[in-house]
Amino acid sequence: MATEGMERTGLVAEGENFTLDGKPVQLLSGAIHYFRVPREYWRDRMLKLKACGLNTLETYVCWNLHEPEKGKFDFTGMLDIAAYLQEAANLGLWVIFRPGPYICAEWDYGGLPSWLLRDPDMQVRTTYQPYMDAVERFFDALLPIVKPFQYKEGGPIIAVQVENEYGSYARDDKYLSAVKQAVESRGVCELLFTSDNDWGFNKGHIPGVLMTANFNFNPKKQLGALKKMQPNRPLMVMEFWSGWFDHWGRDHHKLHVDKFEQLLGDILRFPSSVNFYMFHGGTNFGFMNGANYINGYKPDVTSYDYDAPLSEAGDPTPKYYKTRELLKTLAMKGAVANELPEVPPATEKSSYG
Predict the structure, then answer these.
(1) Are the CB atoms for 182 and 206 separated by under 8 Å?
(2) CA gap 130, 133 in Å, rounded
(3) Whole-prediction pTM value?
């Protein structure tokens, strides 16, 4: 973190390494979505993230829960994004903030509110004016809450994503720039980036905006392709898929710890910064589990365990301890403390009969 009183110049993505306030940094990040974890457990999950050797917390924002009815916003309880960001700041974590408006995330309608579909002509994720009006109204409610938590203003947010994997959709070549403008015009001043899988790079980027990669296979090929596209910028795996989500009626997905070790080792040796998607998956409460339509309708289950380093219950798994081990040995010098905090105990369990 920056020294007290020092001018904060923010995260810069130029050259081989990211720099924060002019000093080289490696971002070691984990995804924990506030809306998938009871508020009472936020601090516990963040403490476990920090004890694993990570320095950054990443989260999406779920528009459909924050604006369940058109024009009626909710930022209370489990949706108190300011409290979540403040907890991260209290623990000395940086934050990667991904406000959408579309987030995918195996979340109902990718986080878009269903009332958008009352317009029979609705064209989501485009510059269709009624859609952009709704996006801008949501950002008018969200971003003033978030703005004080930016790094340059003394907060933990060091980077902000523009939309999400748009290269896989790419229906409107003006849309990403419109979302970027909507974010910047409301005072967002931190590093902006996009994230895509390898076949979305070409259609999902904005000139001058950092591109990041999403994958869990062949890191050398994936990162090599990204490096070729932006040779003078640092590398970031925005989504290193630590496992996978589950569909109803199918077996729980598992990424074996040995394969996980190989993939993470290749990422860190390349070298690249990394965000574990997920570090802790949590739960799809209510009816917020998403679905895929590929050769038929495939709904996701309530659990978002994801075979992540922290289980759905928030307990460390073998992947957690393997991550801790690899970060200690392979991360950039100084990125991981010589003495990590003690890992908090597993969450207490009870039988409900």
Answers:
(1) no
(2) 5
(3) 0.97
Q: What is the mean pLDDT of residues 138-157?
A: 98
- The answer to whether 300 and 253 are in contact (CB under 8 A) is no
- Asked if the peptide bond before residue 6 counts as cis, ω within 30 degrees of 0, the response is no
Note if 239 is an active site residue.
Answer: yes
Q: What is the pLDDT of residues 112-137, one digit of tens each?
A: 999 999 999 999 999 999 999 999 99
- Give residue 172's Cα distance to chain centre: 24
pLDDT value of position 4: 55
Cα 347 to Cα 44, 187, 281: the distances in Å are 9, 39, 15
C-alpha–C-alpha distance, residues 181 and 203, integer Å:
18
* Confidence check: pLDDT of 143 > 50: yes
Structure tokens belonging to residue 159: 């980077």
87 is catalytic: no
- The separation between the first and the last C-alpha atoms of the chain, rounded to the nearest angstrom, is 47
- Which tokens in the block code for residue 309? 């380093």
For residue 271, whether the previous peptide bond is cis, meaning omega lies within 30 degrees of 0, is yes
Question: Average pLDDT for residues 163-188, to the nearest whole number?
Answer: 98
Per residue in 63-99, pLDDT (tens digit) is 999 999 999 999 999 999 999 999 999 999 999 999 9
* Cα(78)–Cα(42) distance, integer angstroms: 9
Instruction: Give every CB contact of residue 283 below 8 A, 6+ residues apart in sequence.
Output: 36, 37, 302, 303, 304, 312
* Active-site residue (options: 67, 106, 163, 239): 239
Residue 36: closest CA among 346, 316, 275, 312: 312
Token pair 């290193």: residue: 240
Point out the catalytic residue in the list 67, 87, 163, 165: 165
**pLDDT given at position 267:** 98
- The count of other CB atoms within 10 Å of the CB of residue 177 is 15
**Beta-strand pair 273-280/236-241:** parallel
Residue 108 and residue 115 in contact, taking contact as beta carbons nearer than 8 Å:
no
Residue 275 has pLDDT above 70, yes or no: yes
